[in-house]
Design a protein that fits this description.
Chain B: InterPro entries: CTU1-like_ATP-bd, CTU1_C, Ncs6/Tuc1/Ctu1, Rossmann-like_a/b/a_fold, TilS/TtcA_N, tRNA_thiolation_TtcA_Ctu1. The complex is a heterodimer of chains A (about 100) and B (about 350). Chain A is mainly beta and about 100 residues long. Chain A has one helix and nine strands, in the order E-E-E-H-E-E-E-E-E-E. Chain A has a five-stranded mixed beta sheet with strand order 2-1-9-6-7, with no helix packed on it. Chain B has two domains: about 240 residues, HUPs (Rossmann fold, 3-Layer(aba) Sandwich); about 40 residues, no CATH class. Classes of the chains: A mainly beta (about 100), B alpha/beta (about 350). Chains A and B meet through strand 7 and strand 9 of A and strand 1, helix 3, helix 10 and helix 11 of B.
């Protein structure tokens, strides 16, 4: 599944200062859907290069990290249960780095 | 970024905006839990800040207002919103951007570039004041002298004064900063944790220093950080730079910050409620409060003979960088002792000339 991931607000520093990542994520065998929960663990394994604790806490993002799926706050689509589709754009912005 | 395909099943079930009832909701307001669309969000976001400004009489027509600009998200959004509201509601303000260069290699270099772009984008003039000019030391030099333990104390104390000094040099009537509701909740907690009663009383005021040369105010006092980020994320043209300060990986404030964010996730109103609690604290009349005066050396407001910046600077210049850190108030202890120590050879900080 092709997705566009954007990291901002300082989170890009955790992935070699690259803000926009065009990625192809494999769905679990036997399933054709991908949830945010799956995506987060995929990101942790494949995109985040350092200090994963700045991005994740438990099985979700750290409080203070805003998540937008196609410009919509993921709180409106079910947080971790949000289902992703081909060509979705997922944005992560940290609010923890001061302003 | 494309809005997505409206025919997809997931999106068809998405709720409509509870304000316009036409467009699909894009976010949930932390303050009210209303689910609203982007367009309605801009309107309520800017309206609320306008209301805060009007209800609290933050400005008078004709005032020259310095916007403390770090290049970070809060001050960038503040510069944008203020220039917008100033035009729309005819505040009649003469706005300009004021930035501080701490002299941290690789930290401010990039963010000052952002402020320079803001200068062009919003058509606001920019003034940069440096620690080096104001105090004779860059933060890099300070860290070299004192190490990484108390450097944030220096930076914080120096920064606070730098904005006032810069504003005075630029003949501003007022200084505004981008401190938001989350910042204020954090500060209230920190002052409680430190037992700093005087600051606890002061820190919830929307305008401070009204009897001083340059009052400061916080138009974002009731604005959630999250909504500031939405504004940034949606207006792609908002240019904002963010990086951690290389010298403060684990400051005390960071823990308070994370605690606030944890609370917000469970109950978003907690942030406003902490502010409300802070505003309504009443300090018992038997509590001895420090008297506000002015620093003998530079004229900045201080409850001691010398302001914190002058004490710290004195220590740096004399090779006693621990001076002024923690509870010992070496320089402020006795006047006689101070008079004996006249070994001031390095550059003292300039006086406030107002």
């Amino acid at each position: 599944m092709h997705l566009t991931l954007e990291f901002g607000g300082g989170l890009e520093l955790l992935c070699k200062s690259v803000k926009i990542h065009e990625v192809d994520v494999d769905t679990k065998s036997g399933e054709d859907k991908l949830t945010m929960k799956d995506l987060l663990s995929w990101i942790q394994a494949n995109v985040i290069k350092e200090r994963p604790e700045m991005f994740m806490k438990g099985d979700s993002v750290r409080p203070g990290v805003l998540v937008l799926v196609n410009d919509c706050d993921w709180e409106l689509s079910g947080n971790l249960d949000t289902t992703l589709e081909e060509k979705d754009v997922v944005v992560f912005i940290s609010t923890l780095h001061g302003g | 970024m494309e809005g997505g395909d409206a025919t997809r099943a997931r999106r068809a079930t998405v709720r409509l905006c509870s304000i316009c009832n036409q467009r699909k909701a894009a976010l949930k307001r932390p303050k009210t839990l209303e689910q609203i669309c982007r367009e309605c969000f801009y309107v309520v976001f800017e309206d609320e800040i306008h209301r805060t400004i009007v209800d609290n009489h933050l400005f008078k027509p004709g005032e020259r207002v310095a916007i403390g600009a770090s290049g970070g998200k809060d001050s960038t959004v503040l510069a944008y919103v203020l220039s917008e509201l100033n035009r729309r509601h005819n505040y009649g303000l003469d706005l300009f951007l004021l930035s501080v260069d701490e002299g941290i290699t690789g930290y401010r270099d990039d963010s000052l570039e952002t402020v320079k772009r803001n200068e062009i984008q919003y058509g606001l003039p920019l003034k940069i004041v440096s620690y080096k000019t104001l105090y004779g030391w860059t933060m890099d030099e300070i860290v070299k002298a004192i190490g990484l333990k108390n450097n944030c104390t220096f930076c914080g104390v120096f920064r606070r004064q730098a904005l006032d000094r810069g504003a005075a040099v630029m003949k501003a009537d007022k200084l505004v900063t981008g401190h938001n509701a989350d910042d204020m909740a954090e500060t209230i907690l920190l002052n409680i944790l430190r037992g700093d009663i005087a600051r606890l009383g002061r820190c919830t005021l929307i305008t401070t220093g009204e009897d001083g040369p340059i009052p400061r105010c916080k138009p974002f006092k009731y604005t959630y950080e999250k909504e500031i980020i939405y504004t940034y994320a949606y207006f792609k043209k908002l240019d904002y730079f963010s990086t951690e300060c290389i010298y403060s990986p684990n400051a005390y404030r960071g823990f308070a910050r994370e605690f606030i964010k944890d609370l917000e996730r469970i109950r978003p109103r907690a942030i406003l409620d902490i502010i409300r609690s802070g505003e309504n604290f009443r300090i018992s009349s038997s509590t001895k409060m420090p008297e506000q005066g002015t620093c003998e050396r530079c004229g900045y407001i201080s409850s001691q003979k010398l302001c914190k910046a002058c004490v710290l600077l004195d220590g740096l210049n004399r090779g006693l960088p621990k001076q002024g850190i923690g509870r010992t108030k070496g320089l402020n202890k006795s006047k006689d002792e101070e008079n004996k120590n006249s070994s001031f050879h390095s550059k003292p900080c300039g006086t406030l000339d107002i």
